[in-house]
């Protein structure tokens, strides 16, 4: 996420630390050249290149999420967008892109990160072919996190539907747009994440250490 006081810096999780062990005290603050400004761990080069490029090209983005999740990565191999097969999926209708540039190539070169960042504009989510999912928010880290969780679930749902061999009945275009306007905003993403946040605060208080 972008540093709230210095927009030229951003915070990320440390390299070689399991997600369950990430806490406030081991987060890393780095500049857009990859220099660690605060923190005692190294940063993931590929993660830095991708995140830094998105933050640099899109100054309005506050936070971004990316991971190689099981269903998201599997779906990304298909190189196609989500279909409006449910109300949940409609939240991403016309608000996500499929990025084919640098598909499957580890993003350790700045040029590669810029190609991905260039395609990731004006939307809250992206499916990077043969790689995984990305979400971003211009509102809060909460929203970016919730949309990542939701996108992973939607990928899982579509994979399950396609596995039946049947053709799903899609939500009509006008209804899909209507639903997106009501359940796909940054505010709604923030709101939905609050229950997750409250559970984390109650069950994992050591994350604030």
From TrEMBL:
Gene Ontology CC, one term: cytoskeleton
InterPro entries, A to Z: Aldolase-II_Adducin_sf (IPR051017), Aldolase_II/adducin_N (IPR001303), Aldolase_II/adducin_N_sf (IPR036409)
Gene Ontology molecular function terms on file: actin filament binding
Domain Class II aldolase/adducin N-terminal: start-end pairs: 1-159
Pfam families, sorted: Aldolase_II
Family note: Belongs to the aldolase class II family.
Protein name: Aldolase
Source species of the chain: Caballeronia ptereochthonis
Taxonomic classification: Bacteria, Pseudomonadati, Pseudomonadota, Betaproteobacteria, Burkholderiales
